[in-house]
Design brief:
The structure holds two protein chains of two kinds.
Chain A: H1 2-11, E1 19-22, H2 26-37, E2 42-45, E3 60-61, H3 64-67, E4 78-88, E5 94-106, H4 108-121, E6 125-127, E7 131-138, E8 141-149, E9 152-157, E10 160-163, H5 171-174, E11 186-195, E12 203-207, E13 218-224, E14 227-234, H6 244-255, E15 260-270, E16 279-280, E17 283-285, H7 301-321, H8 326-357, H9 360-378, H10 383-389, H11 394-404
Parallel strand pairs in A: 1-2, 1-10, 2-6, 4-12, 10-17
Antiparallel strand pairs in A: 3-5, 4-5, 7-8, 8-9, 11-14, 11-15, 12-13, 13-14, 16-17
Helix pairs in contact in A: 2-4, 2-7, 7-8, 8-11
Chain B: E1 6-9, E2 11-13, H1 23-27, E3 33-36, E4 39-42, H2 52-56, E5 62-64, E6 70-73
Antiparallel strand pairs in B: 1-6, 2-5, 3-4
Classes of the chains: A alpha/beta, B alpha+beta.
Chain lengths: 414, 74
């Protein structure tokens, strides 16, 4: 009976949906795509006037075929294939590792627009400049969203709401999912799109050290041609009131003083566990809103795709069964914890050592050990016994081994 | 005679420096900073004056008004 009433109101042009997805980033668009593919009526709402703009991202992510697990890849989304990684210690010691096929540099603006287009073509309604300003509830369960478009406020009804509204997420707070950040979980990041004459060698470069980026790291990622994304993230509690932009100016002077800055962007990177609760009655969170980024690198695109996919599928199935309670959606939460949630805990343990516990001297020791480690491993030795024989600090070995062991298995870092 | 009964936080957003990155939005405990489209919006009455936003702003675009974060209110 109720379904008939809903259908009538849909036919009358009322804003009645099966699902509303807030935020058209990678997590939201994939969730909307999965829901639309399952023939549910979906609204994908983005507060910004243009999807994918401005980009708040260093654009490195996992390999093409990993992205293709979620959506057929359009070649225009890929700026460059990445073939290696280079790590520079505080004193300037370089450790380099060839990692063919480890990932790609995306064109995030095209990627985000492309994903939202796919959702739209599958049948989702996509609205931009459409800001969610409140969650409508009935008996504690989400039942819709209040929106603001220009000065006009309106309401839309849905049986399930997915909050993919990024680090600044409000949906989680409205739903009582404790999605806010502790202040020690957020890092200030700033980045420039650079035109530099430095040779583009398809290698991601990472610089560490208290004077480069206290509590974080600096990156230089080639985009192909003479374009680079160069940026850094700092832990504000260690930066002594010096804003990230000042550290970046210093770093640029060292990276390429002649380079031309085409654009400056900024954002926060997060370092935390995944939220304990990412679903509730009629609600699910995905991506940065659910604290699902990689706590070691600050990368989040692959994880966002994974989360959007899981959340979209779980919501589709719940809708098909006609039950969108927390229990019905918990498949997503369980699956996340079992897979990426667990590996993120490992990344976090390593991040706490590298960025919090260790000083520059400890990092130098690790750089020495790293070179030996990979040389010995290439020689065919057993990973665990080799590591024990090296000069790494014990806690580093315990934290890093599970991750290093996966390095050549193309473990997803971004 | 005006009696001072308290102090209200006051924040200046340097629009030239602000990149709409939402770092402050994410960290603001009472949600006094919001991003509406590309505009950073500050709800003065909700602000508790915790100063977390100054800390995380990558470009130092958030500033206490004339060096003071609290404005006296009568």
């Amino acid at each position: 009976m109720q379904a008939t009433d809903r259908e009538n109101r849909m036919a009358n042009g009322e804003h009645v949906y099966d699902a509303i997805v807030i935020g058209a980033g990678p997590a939201g668009s994939i969730a909307a795509l999965r829901l639309a593919e399952a023939r549910h009526r979906v609204l994908l709402a983005e507060k910004r006037p243009r999807i994918g703009h401005p980009v708040r991202c260093a654009e490195a992510t996992g390999p093409r075929d990993e992205i293709a697990r979620f959506v057929p890849v359009d070649e225009s989304w890929i700026a460059l294939s990445i073939e290696g990684a280079r790590f520079v210690s505080p004193r300037g010691t370089v450790f380099e590792k060839a990692t063919p096929g480890i990932g790609v540099m995306l064109d995030r603006a095209r990627f985000d627009r492309g994903l939202a287009d796919r959702a739209e073509r599958a049948g989702a309604e996509v609205r931009t400049a459409c800001q969610a300003i409140g969650l409508l509830k009935r008996n504690g369960s989400a039942r819709g969203v209040r929106f603001r478009e220009k000065e006009h406020d309106w309401e839309a009804e849905a049986r399930v709401v997915i909050g993919a509204d990024g680090i600044e997420s409000l949906v989680g707070r409205w739903a009582g999912l404790e999605s806010g950040w502790r202040s020690d979980e957020l890092f200030s990041c700033i980045e420039v799109r650079l035109r530099s004459q430095r040779a583009c060698d398809r290698t991601l470069e990472f610089h560490f050290g208290a004077s480069v980026a206290p509590g974080g790291y600096a990156w230089a990622f080639p985009r192909g041609g003479n374009e680079w994304n160069v940026g850094l993230g700092v832990d504000p509690s260690r930066a002594e009131r010096v804003p990230a932009s000042v550290f970046l100016k210093r770093f640029l002077a060292r990276f390429d003083p002649e380079a031309e800055i085409a654009e400056t962007i900024a954002g926060a990177a997060c370092r935390s566990r995944s939220l304990e609760r990412i679903v509730g009655d009629g609600i699910a969170l995905a991506g940065d809103a659910a604290h699902q980024g990689n706590p070691l690198t600050g990368g989040g695109i692959m994880n966002a795709l994974e989360a959007g996919d899981l959340a979209g599928r779980a919501a589709s199935e719940a809708l098909a069964r006609g039950e969108v309670t927390r229990e019905a959606l918990s498949r997503y939460e369980d699956e996340w914890k079992r897979t990426v949630g667990t590996s993120n805990d490992r990344f976090l343990a390593l991040a706490d050592l590298l960025f919090r516990k260790y000083g520059d001297k400890d990092l130098e020791r690790i750089w020495e050990g790293m070179e030996k480690f990979f040389r010995a491993r290439a020689g065919g030795g057993k990973v665990a016994s080799l590591a024990a024989a090296l000069s790494f600090p014990g806690d580093f070995v315990r934290a890093a081994l599970p991750i290093l062991a996966g390095f050549s298995n193309r473990r997803i870092f971004f | 005679m005006t009696q001072r009964i308290g102090a209200q936080p006051f924040l200046r957003i340097d629009r030239e420096k602000c990149l709409s990155c939402a770092a402050c939005v994410a960290v603001c405990p009472p949600e006094a900073l919001l991003l509406a489209g590309l505009d950073l919006v500050f709800a003065e009455e909700t602000c508790t004056g915790c100063a977390e936003c100054f800390r995380v702003c990558p470009t130092a675009a958030l500033l206490p008004e004339s060096g003071r974060f609290y404005r006296e209110v009568a």
